[in-house]
Design goal:
single chain; mainly alpha; Proton glutamate symport protein; 20 helices; disordered N terminus
Length: 429
C-alpha cells in the first residue's frame, strides 16, 4: 500500500491551520456555549454523534483491508500467530498493571472518604440498565460474539472482533491460493488507499464534531455537576497521568523510544479524543501514523483492532479505582482478600464488556455484581460524571494501543530506536 500521511506534512505550517489547534478552539467554544446556553448546547449532540458515526462507518473497512494486505503479504501463518500471541500476552500484562495501579491509588488517596452515603437512599433503578447489559456481556457471550453469523455480519453490526476474524481468514486464504489471489489483493490494496482518503475528507469536520460533543456534555451535565465529585475526577486524571508516564513510559524506555515524543507525534489524535470522548474516531489515523513509523501493516492491523477490545488500559484503571470509591463512599470496608478478589474479577470483566457503548461503566457494573460486598447501587454516585471520566478512559486506551503496536513491532525487529527517532523528528518538521 502506498504510504499515506493523514495529518503530517513535510513542512511546518501555521498552527492556525493545524487540526489540533482547530479542535482545541472548537472545544473551548463548545464549553462556552454549553455553559452560557445549556439548552442550546444539549441540542448540539447530533454534531458530535454524526462525526463519530462518519468515522466509525469506515473503521471496519480499514481493519479488513489492512489485515488482509498484511497477512497475505506475510504468507506465513506462524509469523501471524506469533505476533497475535505476543500482543495478547502484552495486553494481559499491561491491563493487569492498570488494574493494580487503580487499586493502589484508590487505597492511598481514598477519593470516596467522607461521603458517608447510605446505599438504601440511592436510586438503584438508575444503574439497572448497566447491570442488565453487564449480564448480557459476560465472558461466554463475549466469546460467542467473536464468531459472525455470516461473512458480512461484522461489517453490518460494526463488530471489530468479528471483522478481524473474517479478515484473518481472508488474508490466509488469499495468500494460500498464490497467483489466483493476486487480482483480489490488488483490489483490496487499492481500496485501502481510497478508504484512508475518505478519512482525510471526514477529518476536516473534526472541529465541528468536537464542538457539538463538548457543547452537549457541558450543556447536559453542567460544570456544576463536577464539584461534589471533584476529588474523584482529579484522582482519576492523576492516575491516568501516572500510568502513562510511569508504566507506559517505562515500557517505552525499555524499547528505547520516548513516550514524550510519541505523545507529541499523536497530538492530533489526543486532542480529537478529548473533544469527542471516543477513542474510535482516532483509530484510522493512529493506524496510519503507526505504519508511517515503520510498523508493518500486519502488526498494526492485528494489534490496534484487537487492542481496542483486550487492551483497554483506561477502563482497567477506572474499574478498580471507581469500585474502591463506591466502597469508601458507602463506608464498606474491604479486606486485602476482598480487594484481591475484586482485582481477579476485574481482569475478566474489563475485557467482557469491551466494544459496547459505555463499556467502562458496564464493566464496573459487572465487577460489582460479582463482588457482593460493594453495593451496586453506589454506582448511581458516578452517573453524573461518567461522561467526563469516559473521556480520559478513551484517551488512555488510545495511547496504550499505540505504545503496544510499537512494542510488538520492535520485538519483531520491524523498527528500532534509530528508525523511531528519525520518524519523530521528520514528523515535527
Amino acid at each position: 500500500m502506498a504510504t499515506l500521511s493523514v495529518h503530517a506534512t513535510p513542512r511546518r505550517r501555521s498552527p492556525f491551520r493545524s487540526l489540533w489547534f482547530q479542535v482545541i478552539v472548537a472545544i473551548l467554544a463548545g464549553i462556552a456555549v454549553g455553559r452560557i446556553a445549556p439548552a442550546t448546547g444539549a441540542a448540539l449532540k447530533p454534531l458530535g454523534d454524526g462525526f463519530i458515526r462518519l468515522i466509525t462507518m469506515v473503521i471496519t473497512a480499514i481493519i479488513f483491508c489492512t489485515i488482509v494486505n498484511g497477512i497475505a503479504g506475510m504468507k506465513d501463518a506462524k509469523q501471524v500467530g506469533k505476533v497475535g500471541g505476543k500482543a495478547l500476552l502484552y495486553f494481559e500484562v499491561v491491563s493487569s498493571l492498570a488494574l493494580l495501579t487503580g487499586l493502589i491509588v484508590g487505597n492511598l488517596v481514598h477519593p470516596g472518604s467522607g461521603f458517608n452515603v447510605n446505599p438504601a437512599t440511592l436510586n438503584a433503578k438508575s444503574v439497572l440498565m448497566y447491570a442488565t447489559q453487564a449480564r448480557a456481556t459476560g465472558v461466554a457471550s463475549f466469546v460467542e460474539g467473536i464468531i459472525p453469523r455470516t461473512l458480512l455480519s461484522g461489517f453490518a453490526t460494526g463488530s471489530i472482533l468479528q471483522v478481524v476474524m473474517v479478515a484473518i481468514l481472508t488474508g490466509f486464504a488469499v495468500g494460500s491460493v498464490g497467483k489466483h489471489g493476486e487480482p483480489l489483493l490488488r483490489v483490496i490494496n487499492s481500496a485501502t488507499g481510497v478508504v484512508f482518503k475518505i478519512v482525510d475528507f471526514v477529518m476536516v469536520l473534526a472541529p465541528i464534531g468536537a464542538f457539538g460533543a463538548m457543547a452537549f456534555t457541558v450543556g447536559r451535565y453542567g460544570v456544576a455537576s463536577l464539584e461534589p465529585l471533584l476529588r474523584l475526577i482529579l484522582t482519576f486524571i492523576g492516575t491516568c497521568i501516572l500510568f502513562v508516564f510511569v508504566v507506559l513510559g517505562s515500557i517505552a524506555a525499555f524499547y528505547r523510544f520516548s513516550i514524550f515524543k510519541f505523545l507529541r507525534y499523536i497530538g492530533n489524535e489526543i486532542v480529537l479524543v478529548l473533544g469527542t470522548s471516543s477513542s474510535e474516531v482516532a483509530m484510522p489515523s493512529l493506524m496510519q501514523k503507526l505504519e508511517n513509523l515503520g510498523c508493518s501493516q500486519a502488526t498494526v492491523g492485528l494489534v490496534v483492532p484487537i487492542g481496542y477490545t483486550f487492551n483497554t488500559d483506561g477502563s482497567s484503571l477506572y474499574i478498580t479505582l471507581a469500585a474502591l470509591f463506591v466502597a469508601q463512599a458507602t463506608n464498606t470496608h474491604l479486606s486485602l482478600m476482598q480487594q484481591l478478589s475484586l482485582f481477579g474479577v476485574a481482569v475478566l470483566t474489563s475485557m467482557g464488556s469491551s466494544g459496547v457503548q459505555g463499556a467502562g461503566f458496564i464493566a464496573l457494573a459487572g465487577t460489582l455484581m460479582v463482588v457482593p460486598d460493594i453495593p451496586v447501587a453506589g454506582m448511581a454516585l458516578l452517573l453524573g460524571i461518567d461522561r467526563f471520566l469516559s473521556t480520559f478512559r478513551a484517551l488512555i486506551n488510545l495511547i496504550g494501543n499505540g505504545v503496544a503496536s510499537i512494542v510488538i513491532a520492535c520485538s519483531e525487529k520491524e523498527v528500532d530506536a534509530d528508525t523511531l527517532r528519525q520518524a519523530f523528528m521528520e514528523a515535527q518538521q
